[in-house]
Amino acid sequence: MSEKRKRRLSLVEINEQQLFDVANHAMKNAYAPYSHYQVGAAILCDDQKVYSGVNVENASFGLTNCAERTAIFKAVSEGAKSVKAIVITNSTKELSKPCGACRQVMSEFMGPEDIVFLANNQNDYQKYTFKEILPLAFSDEDMN
């Protein structure tokens, strides 16, 4: 394992509980009057800053924004460009699973070995690399 990879993993481990706490706390602010499916996300960026996001529904469902994208867009709007880890949790006993749009946005800011935690309201979770949840990500390299 390379030194860079070790450093990245230890950074995630140091902040793992904080990420879960931030995601769970954020979920309480989700705006989900239609689905009643509340989602919270917390991301750790390469500068060690943590950002949160929630799902924000709209009566015109196509305008709904997911928690993952909310957190990433918030981070990018404040200057972050690289997400090292994300925790996604929800208000049910099922593990969260990011939609295709969120996975594509995540691919813009996460590397294949960055960490994704999918969690539920029972504090159960599964840990994945980003490549495991989107093995054939479309990227800028596909446009060359």
From TrEMBL:
<dbReference type="GO" id="GO:0008270">
    <property type="term" value="F:zinc ion binding"/>
</dbReference>
<feature type="domain" description="CMP/dCMP-type deaminase">
    <location>
        <begin position="14"/>
        <end position="141"/>
    </location>
</feature>
<comment type="similarity">
    <text>Belongs to the cytidine and deoxycytidylate deaminase family.</text>
</comment>
<dbReference type="GO" id="GO:0072527">
    <property type="term" value="P:pyrimidine-containing compound metabolic process"/>
</dbReference>
<keyword id="KW-0479">Metal-binding</keyword>
<dbReference type="Pfam" id="PF00383">
    <property type="entry name" value="dCMP_cyt_deam_1"/>
</dbReference>
<dbReference type="InterPro" id="IPR006262">
    <property type="entry name" value="Cyt_deam_tetra"/>
</dbReference>
<comment type="function">
    <text>This enzyme scavenges exogenous and endogenous cytidine and 2'-deoxycytidine for UMP synthesis.</text>
</comment>
<keyword id="KW-0378">Hydrolase</keyword>
<dbReference type="InterPro" id="IPR016193">
    <property type="entry name" value="Cytidine_deaminase-like"/>
</dbReference>
<dbReference type="GO" id="GO:0004126">
    <property type="term" value="F:cytidine deaminase activity"/>
</dbReference>
<feature type="active site" description="Proton donor">
    <location>
        <position position="68"/>
    </location>
</feature>
<keyword id="KW-0862">Zinc</keyword>
<dbReference type="GO" id="GO:0005829">
    <property type="term" value="C:cytosol"/>
</dbReference>
<dbReference type="InterPro" id="IPR050202">
    <property type="entry name" value="Cyt/Deoxycyt_deaminase"/>
</dbReference>
<dbReference type="InterPro" id="IPR002125">
    <property type="entry name" value="CMP_dCMP_dom"/>
</dbReference>
<dbReference type="GO" id="GO:0042802">
    <property type="term" value="F:identical protein binding"/>
</dbReference>
<feature type="binding site">
    <location>
        <position position="102"/>
    </location>
    <ligand>
        <name>Zn(2+)</name>
    </ligand>
</feature>
<dbReference type="InterPro" id="IPR016192">
    <property type="entry name" value="APOBEC/CMP_deaminase_Zn-bd"/>
</dbReference>
<protein>
    <recommendedName>
        <fullName>Cytidine deaminase</fullName>
        <ecNumber>3.5.4.5</ecNumber>
    </recommendedName>
</protein>
<dbReference type="GO" id="GO:0055086">
    <property type="term" value="P:nucleobase-containing small molecule metabolic process"/>
</dbReference>
<feature type="binding site">
    <location>
        <position position="66"/>
    </location>
    <ligand>
        <name>Zn(2+)</name>
    </ligand>
</feature>
<feature type="binding site">
    <location>
        <position position="99"/>
    </location>
    <ligand>
        <name>Zn(2+)</name>
    </ligand>
</feature>
